[in-house]
Amino acid sequence: MQKRIARRIMAWILSVCMIAGMVDLSGFTVRAEDDRIITTVEFKDSSIVYTYNGGEIKPGTDDDNVIVRDFEGQEVPAENYNLIYENNTNASSGGVKARVTAAAKSGSGYMGSASAEFTIQPKNITDATDVTVTVDESISVTKPGEVRPIPTVQANGVNLVATRDYTYTYTNNNISATEDEKTATVTIHGTGNYTGEKSADFKIYRYDESKLRIVMSTTILEKGKPYIGDKITQQPIPAILTPGRDFQVFYGKEEIPIEDYYDASDTRDPLTDPNATTGVAHRNNHYAT
Predict the structure, then answer these.
(1) DSSP string across 109-142
(2) What is the C-alpha separation between 213 and 253, in angstroms, rounded?
(3) Which of 181, 179, 199, 201 is nearest to 285 (CA)?
(4) Splitting the chain (289 residues) into consecutive groups of 10 residues, what average pLDDT does each group show?
(5) SS3 167
(6) What's the pTM?
(7) DSSP category for residue 149
(8) Cβ neighbours of residue 100 under 8 Å, at least 6 residues apart?
C-alpha cells in the first residue's frame, strides 16, 4: 500500500514538473498501474530433493513447491502465468541444472518472466525395490577359468542400458581345476542417471566330461540294443528308452536325478531328434550332453 501511495505522489510531482517545463519526460515509457511485472520464482521448501524417475520432473505442476512473485514481492496467482521447463528429465551433471520459468499470460495484467534452477539427483539403486538384477543362477563349465554371465538390470520393468546406466564387475567368478562348484557375484554400479550398487549371486559348476556315463540295463544289453562304450549310438532303436528302467546316468559315482535330464511329456526320440529332452540335458545347468 505504501509503495502504491509513493508511486502516485511521485507521478503527481513529475506531472507538475513536466507542466512547469522543469522535466523532459519524452524518453520515458509510461506503464499502466495494473501491469505488474513477474520478477522472481522461488521454492517454498528448498530442502525438497528431486530424484531421477525416468520422466519429466515439474515442480509447481507435480507439486505446489513453486512461488512466483511480482516486483512488489506479492505472490502471483497461478492462473496468471505458464510454467516452462528445461533440462528436467535427466540427472543434473556437468554444472547443467534443470530450470523452471514462469511467463506471464497475455491479458493477465502481468508481464515479463522469471526463472529458477533446481537439481535432479541420480536414482540410488542400492535399496530401490523397483530396480532388479537378474543373472543365470547356475552355469556349467568343462574347463577352469573365469565365468562372466551377462546380467539384466531393470527399473520399473524397463531394461537399463549397460555403460550408459550402469557398469558391472564380478567377484569370486574364477573356478579352478580342483573346484567342482562355487558361488560367484556380479555387482551393478550405477552411472549417469543412477548411482549406488546392487548385486546378484550365481553358482558355477565344473564337470569333467570323462566322468559322465550312461549305464545300460541288463535287459537292454540282452536284447542287443546298439551302443558303444558308455554312449548310446545314434542308430535307430525301435522304442524310446525309459530312464531308470532301460538306463541310468552317472557323473562319477553319483547318479544324476532323472528330473535333471528327462521330460516325460516329450515323446520325441532322442536317438533321432537332437531337440528331444530324453538325454543328458542342461535343464538345471548342472550337466550337459
Answers:
(1) SEE-EEEEEE-EEPEE-SS-TTEEEE--SEEEES
(2) 10
(3) 181
(4) 53 51 50 73 94 96 96 95 97 94 95 96 96 93 91 96 97 93 97 97 83 64 44 44 69 72 64 54 36
(5) strand
(6) 0.64
(7) P
(8) 41, 58, 59, 60, 66, 83, 84, 85, 88, 115, 116, 118
Rounded to whole angstroms, the Cα distance separating 121 from 194 reads: 9
The span from the CA of 165 to the CA of 7, in Å, is 57
Dihedral (Cα; 212, 217, 223, 226), 10-degree rounding:
0
Output the CA–CA distances (angstroms, integers) from residue 70 to 80, 116, 118, 133, 150, in the order listed. Answer: 11, 14, 20, 50, 56
pLDDT of residue 257: 76
> Can you tell me the distance from the alpha carbon of 175 to that of 208, in angstroms, rounded to the nearest whole number?
13
DSSP 94: T
Contact 183, 170 (CB under 8 A): no
As a whole number of angstroms, the distance between CA 95 and CA 161 comes to 24
Give the position of cell 573356478.
Answer: 175
Give the contacts of 18 (CB within 8 A, at least 6 positions apart): 24, 25
| Residue type present at position 152 | T
In this structure, what are the phi and psi dihedrals at residue 13, rounded to the nearest 5 degrees? -60, -45
